[in-house]
Amino acid sequence: MTHRRLTCALLAAALTPLALALTAPAAHAATAAKPYDFNGDGRVDLAIGAPGATVGGKSKAGAVSVVYGGTGGLKTATRTLITQNTAGVPGTAEADDAFGSAVASADLDTDGYADLLIGAPGEDVDGDTNDGYAVVVWGTKSGLSGARSVPNFLERDADRFGQSLAAGDVEADGDPDIVVGSNGPFKLSFINGPFTRTSSSQGGSGAGFPAPYSSTYGITSLSVGPVTAAWHTNLVVHGRKSDGAAITHLVTEPNIGNYTDWMQTLPAGYVSAIGDIDKDGYADIAVGNDRETSADPAGAKGGKVTVVYGGPAGLDSSRAPLVLTQDTAGVPGASETGDRFGSGVSFGDVNGDGYADLAVGASGENSGAGSVTVLYGSASGLRTSGVQSFTQNTAGVPGSSEANDRFGARVLLADHSGDRRAELTVSATGENGDGAVWSLRGATSGATTGGAISFGPATTGVSTAGSPGYGTALNS
Fold it and tell me: Quick one: which of 54, 107, 158, 327 could link to 32 by a disulfide (CB 3.0–4.6 Å)?
């Protein structure tokens, strides 16, 4: 049936969990939870988007699997499957909804449990094809349960609402807000917090974004983090020009009336991550551009990642950006056409030294088998010595490298175990035609393959009919 978006009443029915018997449930927290800590136990949980999943016989309806963290890392025995056929989730699973195309998280109601945002850009609303839709699923002591729609104040001027998502205090007023990317005349929507289970919306606003942002592509990806000293949470916004080439900006203040004052130009790319590499108190930005120059003039042979260092006002103009390719001295491999180095980027502290490390996916490496590179932070910036590289042929990594696995399509560095060292989580969206996820533990020596795990969609209840694209989205 066609979903009606503006119904935002509380939907109290709990999600149907799969083996949701969590051990030692956390007490109610007094302060807001970190993103993706859905049960408030201090560990980051993992949301896995499979927008191509078949649900109730509907092709490409989409699903999201959530695997909870534990003392040994991710625990597939404690998980929740979320679709639009899950009790309490607004709407109904329909063909081509693409539920799970994007995910984001924040403790939107500041109850001590992070909440999960899910985008379904293919959702039809009131007869409008691909109008799009987004939903909040609420965190609780026992995991995710209950949901409500995210209001779209600009539905007549935006399509594919939910194709990108972010959450954080972008207004710097102490309340977390929701940011939704779409295409059309208005490409970015801000939904003002606080956003709770029972309250009416606090209102919102939209940004059309000036040329050369194309309305056809809209806002394709978003990242959030505290880049500038004057603003609590900044946005990195990705879109495309009319010819398909990437364009990227840092939003230093969401003052919708004056674009030139709140946008700083970043190196063009399709994905980004924000983290403090050198522990100077200012976050840095890594922008991945995995395209060849024939597809994007800002790309590079085999793809590239550009690291821009942050300062008090945003970008630090006194420090030259660091451009990384597989031809960079110290980076394993060599730049070859189609490697797609930069298909995924993520910051996290793998070795527990307080400096943000960088994981880079190269999903096209070796005829699409894929690889992941990990570079380590230091007081002087990102090091190109001691770099690690992983494929499915690396000793201790489950599986074997095969053409079109796309290992490294998405990467994530996050502490799922609570030991203050980030695990390296990798998705391979083409594995066995279905997609799969790997997780490697962090250690003082770096990422380690000891105890590495891998699992596919069937493990978490996602149908393998068609091409589910398991791992198309991971924690943003």
Answer: 107
Distance in angstroms (rounded) separating the CA atoms of residues 67 and 448: 20
CA neighbor of 411 nearest in space, from 46, 4, 23:
46
Question: Per the structure block, which two tokens stand in for 71?
Answer: 């003392």
Q: What is the DSSP letter of 459?
A: G
Alpha-carbon gap, residue 252 to 268, rounded angstroms: 17
The pLDDT confidence band at residue 4, using thresholds 50, 70 and 90, is very low
Helices (H), ranges, 347-443? 365-368
- 399-to-41, 46, 89, 436, 464 alpha-carbon distances in Å: 31, 21, 35, 10, 18
- State both tokens at 379: 């007081």
Q: Is the peptide bond before 212 cis (omega within 30 degrees of 0)?
A: yes
Backbone angles phi, psi at 95, to 5 degrees: -55, 135
Return d(Cα 197, Cα 113) in angstroms, integer. 13
CA distances from 395 to 243, 389, 391, 451, 474 (A): 42, 11, 9, 12, 25
Q: What CA–CA distance (Å, rounded) separates 134 from 146? A: 14
pLDDT for the residue 207: 65
Predicted pLDDT at 294: 96
The DSSP letter of residue 460 is: G
Helix (H), strand (E) at residue 378: none
Rg (CA), the chain: 20
Give the three-class secondary structure for 177: strand
Torsion of CA 254, 259, 261, 267, to 10 degrees: 90
Q: What are phi and psi of 11, to 5 degrees?
A: -110, 100
Domains of the chain are 46-474 (2.130.10.130)
Q: Which of 64-68, 146-150, 228-232, 399-403 has the lowest mean pLDDT?
A: 228-232
- Euclidean distance between CA atoms 61 and 102, whole angstroms: 14
Phi, then psi, of 317 in degrees rounded to 5: -70, -15
Calpha distance 456→437 (Å, rounded):
6
Place of tokens 């056409």: 337
Strand partners, 235: 224, 251
**CB contact at 8 A, 94 and 124:** yes
Please name the residue ranges forming H helices in 42-153. Answer: none
Q: Which two tokens stand for residue 403?
A: 């053409």
Cβ contact 165:182 at 8 Å = no
Q: What is the pLDDT of residues 87-104, one digit of tens each?
A: 999 999 999 999 999 999
Q: Positive or negative CA dihedral for 381, 382, 383, 386?
A: positive
Which amino acid, residue 239?
G
Give the C-alpha separation, 257 to 237, whole Å: 17
